[in-house]
Design brief:
This protein is an alpha/beta fold. It has 2 domains: about 250 residues, Rossmann fold; about 70 residues, no CATH class. The chain has 12 helices and 13 strands. Strands 7-8-9-4-10-11-13-12 form an 8-stranded mixed β-sheet, with helices on both faces. Strands 1-3-2-5-6 form a 5-stranded antiparallel β-sheet. Helix 5 crosses helix 7 and helix 7 packs parallel to helix 8. It is globular.
Amino acid sequence: MAGSGTAHLRGDGALLSVEDLVVEYPTSSGTVQAVSKISFDVMAGETLGIVGESGCGKSTTGRAVLRLDRVTSGRIRFGEEWIEQADESRMRTLRRDMQMIFQDPVASLNPRRSVKDIVVEGLAVAGAPAAEKASTSAAVLEQVGLSGERYAEMLPRNLSGGQAQRVAIARALALNPRLLICDEPVSALDVSVQAQILNLIEELKAEFDLTVVFIAHDLGVVRTVSDNVMVMYLGKVCEFGDSVEVYDDPAHPYTRALLDSVPLTDPDKGFAGPALEGDVPSPLAPPTGCRFRTRCPLAQDKCAAEEPKMREVRPGQFAACHFPLAAAS
């Protein structure tokens, strides 16, 4: 389960545990509170989907887990090891077990290197012999559907978006990781290609026994691939639970609003409401109490005075809200 403030974790069986994570960026205008004391677990073998509007902190959370962004405070446990204070040498070793697929597939690839060399960059850094790199390169390209010399010798500029993302996936798999963080891996791709990449990730998850954190703003995609879903707003966790239950019966007004924003193919299923008003506040000066209160149609005085804590509103479903929708359902 997820937490806000004091960590409330699922404990045993979690491959990844994040406790009271804070990531802030100093600017000339103040401090951007990108992620503000969030806690969650990812159990071994599951897929956790993280959703929310642009700027909610979901990508920053993924990067902080890999220590690609500086962690201001909080704790991160991978396996049995707390890694928030690990030095760069230790992180270089740990990242063999923790890989990331980035949003822009072409930009994430070295433009001067061929595909066959790109996919074994991690092995090269680790000092693997040439024979191992060659065999691994051929194997992982085969697994992502890019076998043959035609693709192996290509440069990234000659690849389509879908092909480039397959190369990025192959690069992650080459190190045989335990955790795969996918940061909006299909948002830059055509819809038809998105389905191919999503199916590939699902197949490889089963084949390689991967644990996956899937970050996206596309609610439909997250529901398709995730076991559990975590909803974020302005650096905080709003809701956490089984993806089907959260989507079918959301407890937080913000989750309800996100789901209402998705066009429906069934004309008999209309807008559930209530509607939101206003813009997302600045992370330089987030609202007191509940950060969502300035846009929430259910907000009351208590929401401004007291920050809501994450609590169980249904078995296995948690929301940080003083007046959750679940209470009235």
